[in-house]
């Protein structure tokens, strides 16, 4: 069993995935447009270029998303997508990318559990937690 976040965007899923691909070094595996599905005729013409389903691969994990149907988008709340990053430098780089034109809710800094931890809402309104764990000290 695998659990994968599924995000809904307000018409800018493709732009968000391109941003995440560049920021994370991820790969967009698929972006299926409404117009390429049997449901195309159920959408207004201006909505048929929107993304019905997208898949982004980062390492062995996936992030799934789509554009919300017209009139059904709600601002994300009550969750964060958490990124565990191996180096403090990479955590700072990813955090800075997410923060550009977004809003920082907790600046990235050292904490009692992490070399770096920070929270940010990116420019698409998606809440993220960026975490780089401290290396456990070896017992004497």
Overall description:
The protein starts with 5 loop residues before the first strand and ends in a 7-residue tail after the last strand. The strands form two sheets. A four-stranded mixed sheet has the order 1-4-3-2, covered by helices on one side. It has a four-stranded mixed sheet with strand order 5-8-7-6, covered by helices on one side. It has 140 residues and is of the alpha/beta class. 17% of the residues lie in helices and 37% in strands. A hairpin with a 2-residue loop joins strand 3 and strand 4. It is built from two helices and eight strands; from the N terminus they run E-H-E-E-E-E-H-E-E-E. The chain folds into two domains: 6-67, 2,3-Dihydroxybiphenyl 1,2-Dioxygenase, domain 1 (Roll), CATH 3.10.180.10; 81-133, 2,3-Dihydroxybiphenyl 1,2-Dioxygenase, domain 1 (Roll), CATH 3.10.180.10. The chain is elongated and about 55 Å long. The longest helix has 12 residues, at 13-24.
């Amino acid at each position: 069993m695998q659990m994968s976040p599924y995000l809904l965007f307000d018409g800018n899923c493709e732009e968000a995935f391109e941003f995440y691909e560049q920021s994370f070094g991820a790969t967009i595996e698929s972006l299926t447009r409404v117009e390429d599905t049997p449901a195309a005729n159920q959408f207004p013409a201006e909505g048929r270029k929107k993304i019905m389903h997208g898949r982004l691969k980062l390492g062995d994990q996936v992030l799934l998303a789509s554009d919300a149907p017209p009139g059904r988008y709600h601002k994300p709340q009550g969750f964060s997508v958490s990124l565990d990053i191996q180096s403090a430098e990479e955590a700072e780089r990813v955090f800075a990318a997410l923060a550009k034109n977004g809003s920082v809710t907790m600046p990235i800094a050292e904490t009692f559990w992490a070399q770096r931890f920070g929270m940010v809402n990116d420019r698409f309104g998606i809440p993220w937690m960026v975490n780089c764990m401290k290396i456990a000290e070896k017992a004497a």
